[in-house]
């Protein structure tokens, strides 16, 4: 196999990454619509539109911001070229931004019900399809790993056998999706599955970045993506704990509250 593995038609070459990206959005959106129909209760059309707008706007903004932070010196070198600043996206930033965008939109639209669970499997399938495109694009995509001597290392065209981190992510998402589909913790409230997905994905991205080449590490040897993934993991864990925290039982009446002169029943 030679990289990039683009689609070559008579007179035109279509980038495989673009094909997989369009397919990921299309399949993911169809799965989301199906999941939304199965959710109990429901929002009005206006509320659903606001939450979707919040999701898309937050995801787009978060994706670009984290991409800029990850290789900011490179973007700054080409600051006179606005087209360069339009390139690059980050799934980690998109997830965190999309989550924040939905929560802001829900407050604005007066939605109190949990809506995140409908996103889980569309996101898993969409990200996996997108990573196929990343793998087939090769070195220019910037998502392959560092050199390795492991037998499954892949030569993406530079003569080095590298970690196929895109395939690692697909395998991890497959396992995470199976776990979330088949195993539900007792008493888990609506929205818990989405937060569990975020915790699992952010943990993976924090770890996998250690075997990717990074020309611009930040503090303590971590990258911008790792810092954002760690922030998202902690935020999702705290949100899950708050959502799942059992309601404290009412304190039983004490001897002082039932003593003479103390109104036991106000």
Automatic annotation (TrEMBL):
Hydrolase among keywords: no
InterPro entries assigned to the protein according to its UniProt record, in alphabetical order: Lgt
Keyword Ubl conjugation assigned: no
Ranges that cross the membrane: 12-33, 45-63, 83-102, 218-241
One GO term describing the cellular component: plasma membrane
EC number: 2.4.99.-
Keywords, sorted A to Z: Cell membrane, Glycosyltransferase, Lipoprotein, Membrane, Transferase, Transmembrane, Transmembrane helix
Family under the similarity heading: Belongs to the Lgt family.
Protein name in UniProt: Prolipoprotein diacylglyceryltransferase
Organism expressing this protein natively: Chloracidobacterium thermophilum (strain B)
């Amino acid at each position: 196999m030679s990289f990039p593995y683009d689609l070559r038609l008579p007179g035109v070459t279509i980038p495989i990454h673009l094909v997989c990206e369009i397919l990921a959005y299309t399949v993911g959106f169809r799965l989301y619509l199906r999941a939304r129909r199965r959710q109990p209760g429901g929002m009005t059309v206006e509320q659903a539109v606001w939450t979707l707008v919040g999701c898309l706007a937050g995801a787009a903004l978060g994706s670009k911001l984290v991409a800029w932070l990850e290789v900011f010196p490179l973007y700054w070198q080409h600051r006179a070229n606005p087209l360069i600043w339009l390139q690059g996206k980050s799934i980690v930033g998109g997830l965190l931004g999309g989550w924040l965008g939905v929560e802001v939109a829900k407050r604005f639209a007066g939605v109190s019900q949990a809506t995140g669970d409908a996103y889980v499997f569309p996101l898993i399938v969409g990200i996996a399809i997108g990573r196929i495109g990343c793998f087939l694009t090769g070195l220019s995509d910037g998502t392959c790993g560092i050199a390795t001597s492991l037998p499954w290392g892949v030569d993406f065209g530079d003569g080095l056998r590298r970690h196929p981190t895109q395939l690692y992510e697909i395998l991890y998402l497959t396992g995470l999706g199976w776990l979330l589909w088949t195993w539900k913790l007792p008493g888990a409230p609506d929205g818990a599955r989405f937060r569990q997905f975020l915790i699992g994905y952010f943990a993976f991205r924090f770890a996998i970045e250690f075997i990717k080449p990074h020309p611009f590490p930040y503090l303590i040897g971590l990258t911008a993506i790792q810092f954002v993934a760690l922030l998202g993991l902690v935020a999702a864990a705290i949100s899950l704990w708050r959502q799942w925290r059992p309601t404290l039982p009412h304190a039983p009446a004490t001897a002082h509250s039932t003593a003479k002169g103390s109104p036991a029943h106000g």
